[in-house]
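Input sequence (365 aa), recorded before submission:
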Amino acid sequence: MMHNERCALTNVLVTGGAGFIGSNFVRYLLQVEPQVQIVNLDALTYAGSPANLKDLPSPERHTFVHGDVCDRSLVDGLLRQHQIDTIVHFAAETHVDRSIVYPEQFLKTNVVGTFTLLEAARQYWLVEKQKPLEAVRFHHISTDEVFGALHPGEPAWTETTPYAPNSPYSASKAASDHYVRSYVHTYGLPCSITNCSNNYGPAQFPEKLIPLMISNALEGKPLPIYGDGQQIRDWLYVEDHCAAIHLVIAKGRVGETYNVGGGVQPTNLEVVEHLCAALDEVVPESPHAPHKQLMKFVADRPGHDRRYAIDITKINTELGWRPRHSLGQGLQQTVAWYVSHQDWIQTIRQQPDYQKWLQRNYTKR
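Predicted structure, token format:
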């Protein structure tokens, strides 16, 4: 099958671009695409923050719009006003623990939001033919959690692994992936999908494992480890993920899915041990060093998948992508970022929703 080589990206709509991966992608794209104009649509729910968009390179090529991906007339207006040729869809609720508590919110944002964008793109690109088809792309960011869980010794997931979502979060992402795929096959909408493993890096909301551990460690608080800590995840440094997305949008085949992973599969326990070592190195003067002494086992969460692992052969062979950061390097850069951005952590933590959530999810175990 031919590669669909695209014209250069010109006018890009990034949804969820004030969130963790989205804001890193906006930053990355402004650096590598000197002509690109970015429209960033974000609802600024708890996980998105204007603080993530401070000090952007070439900020004059970035327009922020506060709004919801489920708002069809807003999306229609943005596509027309900015003559959008590329949609990069990050906007999603992404935290498994939250999906257990608030499943309906995940259905709305992840499924209805994706559907709304697909319909708007179909109307603008296919029905009104406002752009040549070879110049447009709808790229959907998904997760490896749609594949369910792996037992020890089972082979890693490939793009053809059947979906078997286990949480309301992964079920909502699986549904949105199916919608994207159906729009390629039913309407000929030029779409691509990436399913990524666990991301980490600068500006990740501090409910997720790595930033939560870093901020707790800096304050000498316990580092909670679920169950026996032997859950295995594939960890991907966010900048490597951004490079993969950019490559798929530019050179990936229409209608194809590409798995993006970090190529390392440590246990959660090993990740926290790595982190403690990085903290010892970056903040040797900390009164809490060695930080390993803060680790504490807590009750496991319901339905906790044991192992995820993702096979990146396809994106490597077809597009030549592989992660550039080792886990050690990525964690060290991440720790250094958090240590030098204490103000960012404080801004996020002052949100009333954040305090309530930590209390509900971690304190009551």
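Checked by second reader. The longest strand covers residues 137-143.
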